[in-house]
Amino acid sequence: MAGQQQRAQGADTRATHEDLYARLAAPFDTTFRSDRGGIELEYITGEQCVSRLNQVLGPAGWSFVVREHGLHAEADEVWVLGELTIVADGQSATRQQFGSQKVRRHRATGAPVDIGFDYKAAATDALKKCASLVGVGLYLSRKDAPAAEGGAAASPPAEGDEPLVCETCGRELGEIHFRDGTAWLPAQLASLGRRKHGRVLCMEHYRQANEARRREEVSRSS
Predict the structure, then answer these.
(1) Using one digit for the tens of pLDDT, what is the confidence trace for 140-184?
(2) Which of 3-12, 16-25, 121-130 has the weakest average pLDDT?
(3) Which residues on adjacent β-strands are paired with residue 94?
(4) Is the dihedral of CA 110, 114, 119, 121 positive or negative?
(5) Distance CA 118, CA 110 (A)
(6) To 5 degrees, how large is the angle CA 88–CA 119–CA 50?
(7) Which residues 6+ apart lie within 8 Å of 222 measured at CB?
(8) How far is CA 77 from CA 72, 121, 209, in A?
(9) In 45, 93, 129, 158, which residue has its Cα 20 to 30 A from 8's Cα atom?
C-alpha cells in the first residue's frame, strides 16, 4: 500500500514538474530579431523574461543575483556572472550564466556614456540565459537541421562524404561557435548561404554577401 502511494506521489510530482516546465517554456507571441556581425538572432526582451517568471512562479518564487562582474578591456565590454534561483513545490534549483554588453561611448570623447546602464544590460543578458536553462525562450536557441533542396533535412557530411567548401574562396566550412554558446554546423551555414545568396559560403563571405545586399537595398530605396 505504501509503495503504491509513493508511486502515485511520484507520478503527481512528475506531472507537476512537466506542467511547470511547459508553462515556463511556452513560445512567446512576440519575439524580436537583430543582426550581429551578419548573423540574424531571434530573442525576447528582459521584460518578457521577467514577466514569464513572475506569471509562472510568482514574484516570490524566483530570485536573481549578480555573483561577479568586471570589464574586459580588450573586447571593450562589461560582463557579469548571474545566478537565478527558482522555487517550486518546496524544491529549489539554481542556474548560473555569463552575460555581456559592449561599452557605449561618446563619439567625440570616447568616454563611457553610462557604465551602470551597460552593467544593467549585461545583467539582463545573464538573466535571460539563466532563465533559458529552465525553459524560458529556450526554443529560440534550437538549431534544427536546415531544409535542403527538395525539402529533405540537411545533415552534417558523413565520414567519406565530400566536405562543404565556400564557392567564393574554396575554403572548407567548419563549425562556427558564437559567444552565447550556440554553434552552427557546416551544413547549417551552407544551407543559409544557398537560401539567401544562392551559393555555399564560408562565414566571412556570408557576412560580406549580407553587407553587400544591405548596401544594395539602401541604394535602391534612396
Answers:
(1) 887 654 444 444 444 444 444 567 899 999 899 888 776 545 566
(2) 3-12
(3) 85
(4) negative
(5) 15
(6) 30
(7) none
(8) 5, 11, 27
(9) 93
